[in-house]
Structures
1.
Amino acid sequence: MKNTLSDNGFVWWIGVVENRADPAKLGRCQVRIFGYHTENTADLPIEGLPWAMVMMPATSASISGVGSSPTGLIEGSWVLGFFLDGNRAQEPVVMGSLPGYNDGFSSQGGFQDPNGVYPRETGPATNSRSRGIDPYDTQDLSNNVNLGAGLVDIVASFEGFSPKAFWDHKQYSIGYGTKANSASEVITKEEAKTRLESNLSSFASQVERWNGTWKYNWSGKQKDALTSFAYNLGSGTLRTLTDNGKRSNREISEALLLYNKASGQIVNGLVNRRISEQRLFLDGTPEDKLDFRPGVTV
């Protein structure tokens, strides 16, 4: 019987963390591994990914709560590891993370942070501080984006308030749809509103970034509609919604209505939310602006 790593074949791998909310609270992560897992989340949803243990240094006992915690990874972290069971490839172990910057987001949904929060910036793989940007300064990251009047209340009404953490299709959520710190967390409305504002500011900055990249020159109401959309589905979905900046504003407004499912099922709340976001996106937009397409003179 083959029972050593060398007998089974020592198999290295590189993957991307997509979930760190380990129900066993062992610091494990669900990792989508290149060459083993598809990027299509419909075929392989996050909950179907294996839980990977995280290797700790010898300075940590890794038992009885003694030592440090293996909880430094986040969704979107690139990690290097190996399979404990060799070629069976069912028991991954994370050895460490790989530093660097993503040059963009996946358009298929896999191999990225499903919440659309990380990476906080994309671009050349050079130290951002050398470009005058501190990637851990939240003021710089948000680019001081001002949220549209009433946007926080609009999104709060879409999400509804929950003082207790609840399972929300792919993660534990709390308050007004923000990610919970644990499955047992309880929160006040005041704290929930603060978290919502902070999260919305981050998504608004992503919308602003794509607006500048694709040169749509979206109005305030259009950006608010897309911020609500991105907050609900992740900023990476802006690429699919706009077809990487190739769709006209009219086509974007029509495509908004297609995002009305959760776990493969149409949800009435999402149907109504998409209709409201479409109305906000179209509100006050001149007819000639609806047919604007980046790179094309209308």
Note: The chain has nine helices and ten strands.
2.
Amino acid sequence: MLDSDELAAIVDFHFYPLDISPAIIGSHQQNCTGLAKEETNCNYIADQANLCVQQHSKQRANFTECMFRQALQGDERNPLAARDTFDGQLADCALTLEDYSVDELRSCAYSDEAVQLRASNRDMIADIFADLNMSVGLVWASVDGKLVSGATEDTTSSREDWQHDLVTAVCDAYAGVKPEVCLTRALVA
């Protein structure tokens, strides 16, 4: 929703995947041994791929949306949650990138560079959580230094209320000429 043309023009969007390593997120225990140099957890390898794209591509929103669309199926049907199908799905999502080839993506996602990107991401997440005085959470965003959190961590539930709150927070924080989506939302509220 924040990457829509109107909002993308006013949002400086950064994506920081939740990383509690060395622990593994309880709902993402799947093992992808042999894909990456150091990491064996499928979820963390997917995060490494996302972080590589964040670092090297301008089309990162398209790629991240493709990766997360797989996760919404639940890990039992998510091709990124199994070693045998992970790399093929990674390549499929890489098709959304015009400025970063699948070979470049693989070279980064499975390498020491990705390990370093994850370490930096983990530090950034810790700092953000401390700054916002919040505990670990999945459904949240920081808008202009203020926490906008979702009511549920359940990936099968609708996040419409949170999305509405998030767009409202972005519109309220923006000091320039409000895009149409902000004006329309204000009339509905």
Note: The mean pLDDT is 84.
3.
Amino acid sequence: MRFVSIQALIIMKEAAGRPRDLDHIQHLRWILNEIKEMNRTDDDIDWSLTTWEGSRRAQLRHWLAFTVRERLQAIEDLAEVAARIARFTATE
């Protein structure tokens, strides 16, 4: 098995120029941005959020801060992400 970086995969797919790769390229860019966000370092780490219970409480606090309209938008966005993942996994 051969491994390549996500950035290299994006470059290869762009170079191929196949229309069917456009969704895959966008998905890979999204993954790359998520990885960059996860690798961001902050000096103030709340270690309680690293447990299942702590992360669940933090997620509930975030949701409570949203207005009803923002909650609906977030649910629609999550549905779109789920559909993209389903399309991505169905093609492989």
Note: Residues 8 and 14 are 10 Å apart (CA to CA).
4.
Amino acid sequence: MKRFIVPVLIAVMVVSIILAGCVPGAAPETPPTAPPTAPPTAPPEAPPAAPPEVIKLGTINPYTGPCAPWGLPVLRGAEIWVEEINAAGGIEIGGQRYMFEQVGYDDICWVPAEALKCVKKGVLEDGVRYFHSTATTAVVEAIAPFLLEHDCLLLTRSAGFGIRPEWPNVIGGFTCWPQYFGIAHQYMAERNPEIKRVAIVGPDESYAPDELLWSRAGAKSVGWDIVYQELYPGDTVDYYPLVSAILATDPDVINLMSSYVSAIPSILEAAKSLGYTGKWMASSIDMSLVVEKVPAEYAEGSVVCMPHPNNPALVGEDIFELYSEFNRRWPGEWGSGEGTSGPNVYSLLVEGMKLADSVDPVAVREALLATDPIEHPYLGTAHWGGKEMYGANNFLMAPWYVGEVVEGKPTAMELIPFYDWYEANKDVVLSEFEAAGHKTYR
């Protein structure tokens, strides 16, 4: 029997050892595996960016009739500016992206009643709240009250008597017509000290009173005698009687003010045939038309208040590129040189939106007027003024160009700070205002 006991005991011991591994609380021979982890979740998708909103810009100018050579370049220059801004993604204000759309409105030839039709259509039908137009007093008087009623902002090229305390929505966006006649006289006098006598003449249009005032102020600021100052009918065809009357006063320079670019060649032709060899000044001269009547040399050295921005070292690469693009699209149509007016006004508007962090016209206006000096994107350091002349500091006195006809081209020659000129000559200017029956605030 003993031979069976030992094997049984051994078997019992082996079973006991095996069962011991299953006793609760006994340490497992291998560590437990970690529970499976959940697959990583993708981060939540960002909400899609809001689509850009559109800000409409109403550009009011003459696009038909005798004044179209001034108005069309404004429209087309602004068109190029809008395209470039939009191609770069527009602007971002207050976390919202905005694009621009220009809407052109034809006021025929700065006709006040037509301009009012333009803004009513723009506001009531097209949803425009920003407008750019002439500073011609009669035009601004016609449209400013309606625009104020609808909280719209009017940015004009330079300033006229539409700048008033009761119309805070009217801002003179940069120095241009008619104030450029002041700095143009300074420029010409410095280079032609022999000049002593000036004749001032222009068409009998709504803008003529403002031009006469600033031309007289410019002439008197340099000590010239005004020997002739008259307006001629806009429908004049034969300019010989007019030119004969001017030459009878023996002027050293004839200021044609904003004579139609189509009329200037005929005036020069009459003067040349009658023996005039003096100097010329004008808002603008279209040399492509002049050479059809007289040799280019006859107009050489003429001073132009609205020269072509064909001097990149002076006007900057941005404006020069805009000028070049304009000429690629519309060869020979720059004409009067007003193609920079839209970019000058609308770039200031963008600065105001950035300052206000808003596109609300009232907020933009207040932000602009609270910033002095202000850096104009294209024209440099500018100051707000106008209080002594108009009763409100809503006129941005920015530097402006004066040019000459050089080798047959109306070329930008100098950028002159208008603010400095005004500070040096304000007594002359204000005296001319008072002589013309205007109230001053000095």
Note: The chain is about 40% helix and 20% strand.
